From TrEMBL:
Signal peptide range: 1-17
Gene3D superfamilies from the UniProt entry: Flavocytochrome C3, Chain A
Record Pfam families: Paired_CXXCH_1
The keyword Signal is assigned to this record: yes
Highest taxon of source: Bacteria
Lineage: Bacteria, Pseudomonadati, Deferribacterota, Deferribacteres, Deferribacterales
Keywords: Signal
Coiled coil: none
Protein name: Doubled CXXCH motif protein
InterPro entries recorded: Multihaem_cyt_sf, Paired_CXXCH_1
Residues in Doubled CXXCH motif domain copies: 497-544
């Protein structure tokens, strides 16, 4: 016998219908979940398992003498959106037995699937089938269909099963599959990718990830397989056009394409993709240009139009902003506009790579000279490498327009063609500098969780208008500027990058150049919250509607819970319910500051540092004793809240006749109308608290009040 051990790591329920607009329940799409249950086979070898709670809809049956007395393990896990030509309509259910490795048993499996995803994919129930997943290969089983959204088949166990929909190969209508890839300062250094300048300094060969570069600057492109929505079986990159005299050629790094434009002008790169179900051909255009200079103003040419002189033109971008508004004035007062002052006395060229514009000594062949000195960047203006700060071009000092947007002057393209269009709002260009180290402003420990928010749930969040507004940078910018940006009017979709939350021009006048700050009005009771710098967080980390909604599960409820609203309060006056933490602000706890402020958006891993964060300025009394890996600085309040939450779950399941550990559903049907109402009110409060995902920490006082009311209501009915 070979004993198979499983480690259960269950964080929270992931529903395939999440963020797809189906049903009344919505679980967080960014929670990875594995659920494992066991069933013991009787002495007669008969298997008869019917799932409930987290496993509702799944069933396993059959008889096999060899299974007598054995334990069958059933694991539920998330499925890939598309695999081997099949769209996944259900989670993956892996059935295994603690037995000999070669033991195989024929059992009947029934799997539930999402009718919403099926409808979105244009399929019908007859098109679905139980499939076996083996690595990246799928085997379709002969299946029968029930009266609801379920499919049954006989399969060999052990195996991993899911409900699949076979897709015919077609030309994909999606765009934005080719994406510009960035290589941050830190990543380039870690890969030992350096360029050496005349002062003998080795500078990381970072990649800005933009479509306007200087000659000699590296460009990297990658395939966005989430947008493609299929498994790539073959691909071909082609440099279909380039300026006369260019010797640029594409090199491959896996499926990624890299090349170095060597002549000023226009370059077009094409990609041909073949997937299991679809094909796609797409092209992107980029320009290699020199940095601009206006002799009349001793500044970049951008200033001529973007100083407000032509603000009355009426030209707006998709967010409704005046394109020719006065950007230069707030920029001049911003951290970017004044960045050169911090290194004005420096003789270290590594400082100018980020504190000046266009510093790239592109010695690509290692002969000690810059083969692309005509780019007219900061390094090309240096006349004395021992006094670099004073001998470079004044108009290129600090982080000017072209440092982020790319150079924009060149005779190879006319003005309108080469001018920026749909400037990307990814973190690409930001990380070429803000991923340096522990020095303030050089963000150390950057996490790409928000940057990849658009890829969650197999990319479905980027296709669904309701999810789009919080899971994509374009959608979030639309929320900030009160414009309805949808998947239909966005060509290249990105995640929540740096410039979504921070205004690189400094126009907002907020702390840390945040785009917005101040009060926020929650839909529930029109509650006005003094959110301060956390206003950006409140925009998405809320339930996106008026609460309570008995019979449904709030998608996210952090803003409501911490503000002390949104729970089902049974008509009671609960007094002051807002948490004292609401005045602290999200980033106070959720940004690691040890060794420099970061954007990991996690609390520090160091226990002492966590406690210091709590006891400095807030909980100023002596910290309590350390116990079981944690401190409870609220003298048992949080522990009490967690105990109450567990008590409510047990009470709901007991009243509903469910297993004690069953997941709490959105709604129940009791033996009487009064009991049904009591169950559903209690279930709502439980899920409202659960989907805050702080375990009660955000507002333990409000949590305990809600739970006590629900427990009393259940007891009375």
């Amino acid at each position: 016998m070979r004993l198979i051990k499983f480690l259960l790591v269950a964080v929270s329920l992931f529903a395939l219908t999440a963020c797809l607009g189906g049903g009344s329940t919505k679980s967080s799409v960014d929670d990875d979940t594995r659920i494992i249950v066991t069933t013991t086979v009787g002495s007669d070898g008969k298997v008869a398992y019917t799932g409930s709670g987290e496993m509702a809809g799944f069933a396993l049956s059959g008889t096999a003498a060899g299974l007598a007395g054995k334990t069958v393990y059933i694991e539920k896990s998330d499925a890939e959106y598309s695999v081997d030509g099949y769209v996944s309509l259900s989670p993956v259910y892996t059935v295994s037995v603690a037995d000999k490795a070669d033991a195989v048993y024929a059992l009947t499996v029934t799997l539930p699937y999402s009718s919403t995803i099926l409808a979105n994919e244009g399929g019908s129930a007859a098109d679905t089938a139980v499939c076996i997943l083996s690595g990246s290969s799928v085997t379709k089983l002969t299946s029968s269909h029930g009266s609801g959204s379920d499919v049954t088949a006989v399969g060999s166990v052990p195996a991993s099963f899911f409900v699949g929909l076979k897709k015919e190969q077609s030309e994909s209508s999606l765009t934005g599959i080719i994406k510009f890839e960035a290589v941050s300062y830190r990543a380039a250094a870690a890969a030992s990718s350096f360029l050496v300048d005349p002062s003998a300094k080795s500078l990381p060969d970072s990649v800005r990830g933009i479509d306007r570069v200087q000659p000699g600057e590296k460009v990297r492109l990658f395939i966005d397989t989430v947008t493609f929505g299929d498994t790539v079986t073959s691909f071909n990159w082609t440099l279909t056009s380039k300026p006369a005299g260019s010797l640029a050629a594409i090199t491959l790094n896996g499926t990624n394409a890299t090349f170095v434009p060597d002549v000023a002008g226009k370059y077009t790169v094409s990609l041909s993709l073949v997937g299991v179900n679809s094909t796609k051909t797409e092209s992107v255009t980029l320009y290699a240009l020199n940095y601009s200079y206006n002799t009349a103003t001793n500044s970049a040419s951008c200033v001529v139009c973007h100083d407000g002189t032509f603000a009355g033109s009426g030209i707006t971008d998709k967010y409704g902003r005046n394109v020719l508004r006065a950007i230069t004035t707030p920029w001049a007062a911003s951290a970017h506009g004044n960045s050169f002052a911090a290194v004005a006395a420096s003789t270290d060229s590594r400082c100018f790579q980020c504190h000046a514009t266009g510093f790239l000594f592109a010695d690509r062949n290692g002969n000690g000279s810059d083969e692309f000195s005509d780019a007219k960047g900061y390094d090309d203006k240096i006349t004395n490498w021992s006094t670099m700060a004073s001998t470079g071009g004044d108009h290129l000092k600090s982080v000017s327009c072209e440092a982020c947007h790319g150079p924009n002057d060149g005779s190879s393209a006319n003005f309108f063609e080469k001018h920026y269009k749909n400037t990307a709002i990814t973190s690409n260009v930001c990380l070429s500098c803000h991923d340096y180290g522990t020095v303030s402003g050089h963000v150390f420990g950057y996490s790409d969780g928000h940057d990849n928010a658009h890829k969650l749930s197999g990319g479905n969040v980027a296709k669904n208008a309701a999810c789009f507004k919080c899971h994509t940078g374009e959608g979030m910018m639309g929320r900030i500027f009160s414009k309805n940006i949808t998947p239909a009017n966005t060509d290249r979709i990105s995640g929540i990058g740096c410039s979504v939350c921070h205004d690189p021009h400094g126009e907002s006048g907020q702390n840390s150049q945040l785009r917005i700050s101040g009060s926020y009005t929650l839909p529930t009771k029109s509650t006005v919250v003094a959110a301060g710098d956390s206003k950006l967080c409140y925009y998405c980390h809320n339930a996106d509607g008026e609460l309570p909604t008995v019979g449904a599960i709030p998608h996210n409820s952090q803003a409501e819970l911490i503000s002390g609203v949104g729970g089902y309060e049974y008509g009671q006056n609960l007094g002051t319910t807002a948490s004292s933490h609401s005045a602290t602000g999200c980033s106070t706890c959720h940004m690691k500051t040890q060794g420099g402020t970061t954007h990991s958006l996690d609390m520090t891993d160091d226990t002492a540092a966590r406690i210091a964060g709590c006891t400095t300025g807030c909980h100023t009394t002596n910290a309590p004793a350390y116990s079981n890996g944690t401190y409870d600085v609220t003298a048992g309040t949080v522990a009490a809240a967690k105990a109450k939450i567990a008590e409510l779950k047990a009470a709901i399941n007991a009243k509903a006749g469910e297993a004690a550990d069953a997941a709490i559903k959105a709604s129940y049907t009791g033996t009487t109308t009064a009991q049904t109402n009591a169950l559903n009110r209690a279930a709502y409060n439980y899920n409202f608290i659960l989907n805050d995902r702080s375990g009660g920490f955000h507002n333990p006082g409000y949590v305990v009040k809600l739970v006590n009311l629900s427990l009393a209501d259940l007891a009375a009915n």
